[in-house]
Amino acid sequence: MSDKRDVSQPDRSSAESGLSRRAFIKGVGVTTATAAAATTAISQLHAETAPLPKGIRSAVVQTEINGKAYRLTVKTHWTLLDVLRRELGMTGTKKTCDRSSCGACTVLLDGKAVYACALLALDIDKRKVTTIEALSDGDRIDPIQEAFIREDALQCGFCTPGMIMSSKSLLDRNPYPTVAEVKEALAGNICRCAAYHKIIKAVTSVKA
User: Fold this and answer.
1) The whole model's pTM is what?
2) In the chain, what are the domains?
3) Closest Cα partner for 174 from 196, 206, 202, 141?
4) CB neighbour class for 67 (10 Å; exposed up to 12, middle 13-18, buried from 19)
5) Residue by residue, what is the 3-state secondary structure of the chain?
6) With b meaning 16 or more CB within 10 Å and e meaning fewer, what string describes 178-192?
7) Do residues 147 and 160 lie in contact, with contact meaning Cβ atoms separated by under 8 Å?
8) What pLDDT score was predicted for residue 59?
9) β-pair type (58-65, 128-130)
10) What is the pLDDT confidence band of residue 51, given thresholds at 50, 70 and 90?
11) pLDDT greater than 60 at residue 179
12) How far apart are CA 29 and CA 176, in angstroms?
């Protein structure tokens, strides 16, 4: 005798029970997703209500960001990048590697290019911060931004704000940089789309 089932006939056991394989699998998927969502929500609730780890405290810093005075209450472990994006909604400064290696989060601190992800919020007390948002006002944009557009010096755009801020730091102190000086100033900024040739051309084309 052959033990092969007659596949030409429907599975009566499933039909009689009123539950098809498709319905069963669909039900399992919905149940799993619901449980996962509930677990995530509970975890987030616990994270929000849990006490701060030992050693983490709050502090008040007074700073100037893009020409505006701020008095901010920050946690001692927050970075400047956290404060700009999450607390102040200044999302022009990009969070990509978050490990001080790509330069996408570059801002100016007292005119000097720094990684916002590597700087504690406490360190901006009584100092001036400039972000990419400060370079435009409505339809008016900075000559550096105009040059990046003119020379098509971008592709995905994630590195662009950091590239522009590093370029501004350079041009503010050296309005007529050489190609070698531009390369040195942008050495800490990575363009994964490899638009370096056009970026360098854009920076050197800016007129003081």
Assistant:
1) 0.74
2) 58-205 (3.10.20.30)
3) 206
4) exposed
5) CCCCCCCCCCCHHHHHHCCCHHHHHHHHHHHHHHHHHHHHHHHHHHHHHCCCCCCCCEEEEEEEECCEEEEEEEECCCEHHHHHHHHCCCCCCCCCCCCCCCCCCEEEECCEEEEHHHCEHHHHCCCEEECHHHHEECCEECHHHHHHHHCCCCCCCCCHHHHHHHHHHHHHHCCCCCHHHHHHHCCCCCCCCCCHHHHHHHHHHCCC
6) eeeebeebbebbbbe
7) no
8) 95
9) parallel
10) low
11) yes
12) 62
131-134: Cβ within 8 A, 24+ apart: 131/65, 131/66, 131/84, 131/90, 131/92, 131/93, 131/107, 131/165, 132/92, 132/93, 132/107, 132/161, 132/164, 132/165, 133/66, 133/90, 133/92, 134/66, 134/67
Pair of tokens at residue 86: 């999450």
The predicted pLDDT at position 52 comes to 61
